[in-house]
Amino acid sequence: MDKPKFVYVVYVATTQEKLWNALIDARVTTQYWQHENVSDWKPGSKWEHRESNKERTLKLVGKVIESSPPRRLVVTWADPSDEKREEKHSRVTFELEPVRGVIRLTVTHDLLEPGSDMLEGITAGWPKVLSSLKSMLETGRPLPTLW
Amino acid sequence: MDKVFKALANPTRRKLLDSLRARNGETLGALCTDLDMTRQAVTQHLRCLEEASLVATIWRGREKLHYLNPVPLHEIYNRWIEKYERQQLQALSDLKKIAEGD
Questions:
Q1: DSSP label of A68
Q2: Residues of A whose CB is below 8 A from B25
Q3: Predicted model pTM
Q4: What is the mean pLDDT of chain B?
């Protein structure tokens, strides 16, 4: 088994259900991510990541590999131009775990191509997205502008 | 946030974070090779970093792998640096690098 490339952890004072919903509900992701995660979230289904603008620009695509609400979500993650080339897809695992009265969210992003634009993008992106998510769930206010 | 500042207020722990930035997902053994101290001392520094959530760990079989977790640093950055200041600060930091020939 390969080493995962990145592991991000954030502790959020919320419930597993609210945190789970914040990952899969496009109306919520648009608030803290300024992008929409769209899918029916059934294993095997496609998911899309779109900008919350008028054009609703498609940013990422992938498939739902595992969906076990409200604990574990695994999706593949790819640039739309690589949709057909599955060997280029990376993988994101979200794990939600209650720890001492708060929820620990662990995001593992692996199968990334070394030196790729995707790798550069996600290393800049995840810390922003996760701190905005935490801020929104704890204070009702996401970070003002992410991108 | 106190834990983050406490964890950062130590050169060995900052060096451990630098090592992980260069090679993410290292074992304790690999991290020890960069440092001239006992395994036990390194373990304690890593625990402090883990408690501050600056290092995230996962188990792969019997190996514990350590990952740099920059999320708490981003929270600090957001707390004191306004969006409109970011570009100017980046420019200043670039200028400093060039001027110092870094």
A1: E
A2: 3-5, 7
A3: 0.88
A4: 91
